[in-house]
Amino acid sequence: MSQTIEKAYKYCETVTKNHAKSFYFAAKFLPKRKQRPIYALYALCRSVDDEVDEAEVENEAQAIKAVESWKRKLNEVYQLVQSPKPKAQSPNLENQNLVLIAWEDLLKKYKIPQHLPLELMKGVLQDTHVKRYETFDELYVYCYRVASTVGLMSSEIFGYEKPETLEYAEALGIAMQLTNVLRDIKEDAEMGRIYLPQEDLRRFQISEQQIFDCRINANFVELMKLQIKRARDYYEKACKGIPLLERDTRFTVLLALRIYSRILDEIERQDYDVFGNRAHTTLRQKFFSIPKIWLEARNL
């Protein structure tokens, strides 16, 4: 492995470690050969998201420009890898983002459909102009773009045989993003965003002002119970796909699933107060969950 590629993967690992602690914790249990591409995958998602967030401070046009730049560069990487003719290394590859250098290497080993990272970019850009979702179906599309695509791309690295495995990978992405939505209600509201479906707010007679004011009442608790059940239903569905993955990745995926779903438990433990404290899992909780989850994964 060249020094440049080594540097690229190290950078991707650092990005993952700093910004996705639960994801990084679970990924450390993957075989070494699968860890690097997973870090590269996450680093792409994070880099695009961060750049769009920074550009959005200026205006939406800048955010669109940032995404188009990523699309163009990623397309160049795909063309380089997929070219049927022997070809010297692209002269400008060394000047590209380290994330793209890592992607150029991982695409030589794993067939990740190009439409998946493009769909993810579409979802990231969606945050710049869509601040409300009328129905859960609309929210589902958003969750698919920003999270299920990650699960689908990861599945190509994890390894599987049956195509229905991807259906469960999609479900896990939906479950995790719904968990994010519930955990981050306060932070999103501070940015003028409400991801909870408007139809659900009306059903439980919750006004947007109540969300902005961080007020909890009996109706809000019932709303949260519905959302948590919905997320857990997708986690339950996702569990059915873990035995379909290659054996050396099952524990990692199950660990990630259990750790992330525990955020829902923490929300319940806090009496659904997502405004006072941001629900999370501690490093201690993660470590103590390992033996039980390892046994569970071993029996799959």
What would you note in describing this structure?
With 300 residues, the protein is mostly helical. The protein folds into two domains: 1-111, Farnesyl Diphosphate Synthase; 130-300, Farnesyl Diphosphate Synthase (Orthogonal Bundle), CATH 1.10.600.10. It is built from 14 helices and no strands. The longest helix has 27 residues, at 32-58. It is globular and about 65 Å long. It starts with a helix and ends with a helix. The relative contact order is 0.10.
Question: Helicity range of the residues?
Answer: over 70%
State the end-to-end CA separation: 35 Å
Rg value? 20 Å
Count all strands and give the number.
Answer: 0
Morphology: globular
Largest sheet: none
Low-pLDDT segments, ≥5 res: 88-95
Strand percent estimate:
under 5%
Mean pLDDT: 92
Write a brief caption for the model.
The chain is mainly α and 300 residues long. The protein is 72% helix and 0% strand.
Write the layout of secondary structure elements.
Blueprint: H1 3-19, H2 21-27, H3 32-58, H4 60-82, H5 98-106, H6 115-126, H7 136-158, H8 165-183, H9 185-190, H10 198-203, H11 208-212, H12 218-239, H13 247-269, H14 283-298
Helix pairs in contact: 1-2, 1-3, 1-5, 2-13, 3-4, 3-5, 3-6, 3-7, 4-5, 4-6, 6-7, 7-8, 8-12, 8-13, 12-13, 13-14
